[in-house]
Specification:
Elements: H1 13-22, E1 30-32, H2 35-40, E2 54-57, H3 61-70, E3 81-84, E4 99-102, E5 110-114, E6 119-123, H4 128-135, E7 140-141, H5 154-160, H6 167-170, E8 177-183, E9 189-192, H7 197-204, H8 209-223, H9 225-231, H10 244-247, E10 248-249, E11 254-255, H11 258-261, E12 270-277, E13 279-280, E14 284-292, H12 295-306, E15 312-317, H13 318-325, E16 347-355, H14 358-377, E17 383-389, H15 392-408, E18 417-418, E19 425-426, H16 432-445, E20 450-455, E21 460-467, H17 472-491, H18 509-513, H19 515-528, H20 557-561, H21 566-571, H22 573-576, H23 595-600, H24 607-623, H25 628-636, H26 643-654, H27 660-669, H28 677-680, H29 687-698, H30 706-712, H31 714-721, H32 725-732, H33 735-745, H34 758-764, H35 772-776, H36 780-783, E22 786-790, H37 793-798, H38 800-812, E23 816-819, H39 827-831, H40 835-853, E24 859-861, H41 864-871, H42 873-878, E25 887-889, H43 890-894, E26 909-913, H44 916-921, H45 925-935, E27 939-942, H46 961-970, H47 972-977, E28 984-986, H48 989-999, H49 1006-1013
Parallel strand pairs: 2-4, 3-4, 22-23, 22-24, 24-25, 26-27, 26-28
Antiparallel strand pairs: 1-2, 5-6, 6-12, 7-13, 8-9, 8-12, 10-11, 14-16, 14-17, 15-16, 15-20, 18-21, 19-21, 20-21
Length: 1014
């Protein structure tokens, strides 16, 4: 039995008192104090881990004013804060042991757009891609780019002065910030924009914190102009912290405080609103994918490409490309970055041209193509091929692959993982090739593996050496390499932090600035934050403060992970390997990635949050001398805790007895088990797998709710009820039955059984019954005309029309369909963590299906989730004992059997709403269906949607009902409303159930539409 886990880092008394006092003010946001909530923001995309004392989610600027004003009371003088946006930083910028202010949950509204003047005003919790999706219908966009654009917030971009692809033309975030609204630590509201003249005189004369700030800025900039000019490198990426170089214009006497706040990493104030410059989306875009025989050739050739007047030149090495080829993302770009026959592509430059004038664009493209053709013909500069792409959707797919590169590097095999700490060095582009030679020598001396990609047009290189941070010696190596890279970048007139900010690398700041100029930074920090209360230790400390800067030697996640035994880490790699890249926070509602975090806005309910909780749970078990693998083995052997022990433990739970396992369970219960994370996450964090294992262990200590049995054993009682559907439906239609089911079982909207039954439907349509002995005596040629249909409990007993039409379609196509006897699949047991029972079900079902596979007749399944369970969960549970049987989805079976001839195109048009498990596990699914419909003369258009919110039986859980309907409203409701429902198709049983429940109309399965065409 797992023990009760009572360990949690308690909140310090003064912080607890502050949070209690805050709850009694007019503050309207959320206050979270649970251990799980604090753990959810204890990490970012770096190697560090800092547990905050609490997390605040303000709903307005006034809420932050309330926080800061309360903090001015003497009893709270030691309370400190760190602002947080998307939590995508690679150097721990937003990590804190104090209070975290997270603006992403509520302060994410677009407030005002002025098309004529070209600006937009937003709250700083707005996500970058969210903003551009809003601007796109107006033909406008916010141009600074970054790889984490689908989850990085504007506040984070401002705080780190973010930039990426296209920065030579579009610049950095600070180049597009027109004004900011911020709250100072004393509660004063600071509205910053370029000012001069009388307005500047008035502000610098004020007897408050704002006046003090302006006086200090003017003093520093007026007296240290030459020092500032000498210190800041002549680079496109001059990210250093406080941008003294651009805050003051001596010629016009203009001061722009936004330049101080941009890149300050939240160490000066809480930025709540931003007025941003926006511009017209380019009319013409063309992308070259230039292929090289080596990464060094790609790097050395980059300046040539920049000189071709390109918007950007992005470089990727073979390691990153090879990882991309193993990821779901490659299906979208494989034809756009094809192999070169007889050559090995070891480097790639992605070159983009943009123009408003079609003729100029054509000239640029033709000129570069001619030069590349000549290089290939003469075998010069390592160029071995190229492809041109000018379709916008294809261009976005290529950049989607490039953006995923940073996460893909974390998916390398072994315990050593490429990590961020020297990943954004920047040197003048003309020095880049020579610099990288030395950089590689440094890494090779330590026998390190690494992947490289970057913005070679700006001299920025992304390098992530692979280190095992659970190894204390390799942690020391990280320090050693950091020191040497700082010296190396200085040698080549660059800097260590060209794009991702300082964070825990702030200790190198004094070395970069020099003592005199760094002292000025400390004066500015003192003017904004005299007592070092805002993101303390980042960038610099206030003058006269004795406190230290944060260091690369700070506490790391590996310190905690190494407490988990190696065998356990290897067994639970689906959670251990999460590197915090945060792709699961994707704001896009049409993306299937993690619907639970989209609807709750709670980081605990994300793959990253759940993985973090799982790691902590495993660590606590290890520290309690519990061998979790042995405990699992005991459970599979039937050594379970007695019902009496579980009962008393459950009573204690209901009385409020603390167990960290309850906090983990809360997060796991919110998971819909849609499995999108297993392919959408570049690390392939597989929440449903470790969730099932956790629930299996958790319920060895605590009793299960009745609804778990109701779901897990549906494959046992559905066949029995299915024999008398009208009898059971009579009772299921009663309001009293629904009320009792909700109250005592915890389930709602239970579907009715199919009537007539599948068996009776099959008999009416002259479909032969399955007869194993007859099949066994057939010749191989005779068997080619047969197809075996595998049943599942949901379509067979609750949606029999779909199975009937599947059989009729197969028959119409000239084959002989046979319905296999029903065998439980076990998926419902797995979802609820009945893993011992699932293993037995899977073993029995696999034995039967392997026997059927010996007939050498194709087997098809109807519901994607159930079919894919045979491929995924069965593999986890049975390993080699699974056998080699294969159950196909219908489109997988039919596509290779289509003839050459196609029917003439008709006006028949349909729209496919894919099942989230299917579209993520089998990314060609929708295109396969489209090809089939096209073959038969109809058009099938894929509709990008996220999860429908039903996810098997999750939407029938009374406790999840509101979230289920909210998830449906994120994408399905809007897209269904746009179209004739009779033309909308859905492959998933759960998806069709959800639409029927909410819209009152059942969607057809694609097979049913195909049958009508035939």
């Amino acid at each position: 039995m797992i023990p009760k886990l009572t360990h949690q880092e308690n909140i310090k008394k003064d912080y607890f008192a502050f949070l209690e006092a805050l709850s009694r003010t007019d503050y309207s946001g959320d206050i979270e104090k649970s251990y799980a909530s604090r753990l959810a923001v204890a990490t970012d995309n770096s190697v560090y881990q800092c547990l905050p004392q609490g997390v605040l989610f303000p709903k307005s600027t006034q809420d932050i004013v309330e926080i800061c004003q309360l903090a001015q009371q003497d009893e709270f003088a030691d309370i400190r804060f760190s602002p947080r946006g998307g939590g995508t930083g690679t150097n721990g910028q937003s990590l804190s042991n104090d209070l975290v202010l997270d603006l992403s949950r509520y302060m994410n509204n677009i407030l005002e757009l002025n098309e004529k003047e070209g600006w937009v005003r937003v709250q700083t919790g707005v996500v970058k891609d969210q903003l551009n999706a809003y601007l796109r219908p107006y033909g406008l966009f916010f141009s600074p780019e970054l790889s984490t654009s689908n989850r990085a917030t504007i506040g984070g971009m401002v705080s780190c002065d973010a930039s990426g692809q296209g920065s030579l033309v579009y610049g950095k975030t600070s180049d597009h910030v027109l004004a900011l609204q911020s709250v100072l630590v004393d509660g004063a509201l600071l509205n910053s924009a370029p000012i001069k003249g009388a307005e500047l005189v008035e502000l610098r004369g004020r007897d408050d914190s704002i006046g003090k700030i302006y006086r200090q800025i003017l003093e520093t900039c007026a007296t240290k102009q030459q020092k500032i000019s000498d210190a800041f490198p002549k680079l496109n990426r001059f990210l250093t912290g406080y941008d003294l170089k651009h805050v003051y214009d001596a010629e016009t006497g203009t001061v722009d405080l936004t330049r101080i706040l941009c890149g300050a990493e939240g160490s000066l104030a809480f930025i709540t609103e931003a007025k941003l410059h926006i511009q017209k989306i380019p009319t013409y875009r063309t992308l070259f994918n230039v292929k090289y025989d080596s990464f060094q050739s790609a790097l050395q050739h980059a300046p040539f490409l920049v000189n071709a007047n390109a918007l950007s030149v992005e470089t990727i090495d073979s390691k990153v490309m090879n990882l991309a080829k193993l990821d779901i993302v490659w299906h979208s770009v494989s034809e756009l970055i094809a192999d070169v026959p007889g050559k090995c592509v070891d480097g790639l430059n992605i070159v983009e041209f943009v123009e408003e004038d079609a003729q100029i664009q054509a000239q640029k493209v033709a000129a570069l193509a001619a030069k590349l053709d000549a290089l290939i013909a003469n075998q010069e500069d390592g160029v071995i091929g190229y492809q041109i792409c000018d379709d916008l959707a294809d261009i976005n797919r290529i950049y989607g692959m490039r953006k995923k590169a940073v996460g893909l590097l974390g998916n390398t095999a072994g315990s050593a993982k490429p990590i961020a700490f020297v990943e954004d060095t920047c040197v003048p582009p003309e020095n880049l090739a020579a610099y990288i030679i030395e950089f590689r020598q440094l890494l090779d001396e330590h026998n390190l593996h690494y992947g490289m990609f970057g913005h070679v047009d700006a001299g920025v290189l992304h390098v992530r050496p692979a280190l095992d941070m659970c190894d204390p010696e390799q942690e020391k190596m990280m320090r050693n390499i950091s020191d040497k890279v700082v010296a190396l970048t200085a040698k080549y007139k660059g800097l260590m932090w060209g794009e991702h900010g300082k964070g825990f690398r702030s200790e190198y700041g004094p070395e970069f600035f020099g003592e005199e100029l760094f002292t000025e930074l400390r004066k500015i920090k003192a003017a904004f934050d005299p007592n070092n209360r805002v993101n303390p230790g980042k960038i610099c400390t206030p003058l006269n403060s004795m406190e230290s800067l944060v260091s690369v030697d700070a506490l790391k996640r590996g310190t905690f992970d190494r407490q988990i035994p190696i065998k356990v880490r290897e067994s639970f790699k689906e959670s251990i390997d999460c590197n915090g890249n945060g792709l699961c926070f994707n704001y896009d509602t049409s993306s299937p990635m993690c619907p639970s975090v989209k609807v709750t806005k709670d980081r605990r309910h994300s793959p990253k949050g759940r993985a973090g909780l799982m790691r902590e749970w495993l660590r606590q078990l290890a520290n309690n001398d519990i061998d979790v693998l042995q405990l699992e083995s005991n459970l599979y052997a039937g050594k379970n805790a007695t019902v009496f022990k579980k009962f008393f433990n459950t009573v204690a739970k209901r009385k409020g007895e603390y167990d960290f396992s309850h906090e983990v369970m809360e997060a796991m219960q919110g998971c819909l088990a849609c499995k999108a994370c297993t392919s959408q996450c570049p690390i392939q964090v597989d929440v449903p797998t470790f969730r099932a294992r956790f629930m299996h262990l958790y319920h060895n200590r605590y009793l299960r709710p009745l609804k778990d049995y109701f779901v897990a054993y549906v494959e046992t009682y559905a066949p029995l009820m299915g024999k008398m559907p009208n009898f059971f439906n009579f009772f299921m239609k009663m309001k009293l039955t629904a009320t009792l089911t909700e109250k005592f079982v915890g389930m709602v909207d239970i579907p009715l059984l199919s009537s007539p039954t599948l068996k009776s439907s099959v008999k009416q349509h002259d479909i032969s019954e399955f007869d194993l002995q007859k099949l066994q005596v057939l010749s191989d040629a005779e068997r080619e005309s047969y197809v075996l249909v595998v049943q599942d409990p949901f379509t067979t007993y609750y949606d029999a029309d779909v199975v009937r039409d599947l059989l009729l379609t197969i028959k119409k196509l000239g084959y002989k369909p046979l319905l296999l006897p029903f065998k439980p699949n076990g998926k419902p047991q797995h979802i609820k963590g009945f893993l011992s029972q699932f293993a037995k079900t899977a073993e029995d079902s696999a034995a039967f299906l392997n026997q059927m596979a010996q007939l050498n007749i194709p087997m098809l399944g109807t519901d994607p989730a159930m079919v894919l369970c045979y491929r995924d969960e069965y593999k986890h549970a049975l390993g080699d004992k699974r056998g080699d049987f294969n159950v196909h989805l219908f489109q997988e079976w039919l596509l290779p059997r289509l003839g050459e001839a196609e029917r003439p195109q008709s006006n028949e048009q349909f729209f496919l709403f894919g099942h989230c498990t299917e579209v993520t596990a089998e990314p060609t699914s929708s295109s396969d269906w489209a090809k089939i419909f096209k073959h038969y003369g109809a058009t099938l258009t894929n509709v990008p949607v996220g999860c429908c919110g039903m996810a098997g039986t999750d939407g029938h859980d009374a406790g999840h009902l509101s979230d289920s309907k909210a998830i449906y409203s994120l994408s399905w409701e809007r897209e269904i409303a746009k179209r004739d429902r009779s033309r909308c198709l859905a492959t998933g049983y759960s998806c069709r159930s959800q639409v029927k429940r909410i819209e009152g109309q059942t969607l057809k399965h694609p097979v049913q539409a195909l049958l009508s065409i035939l």
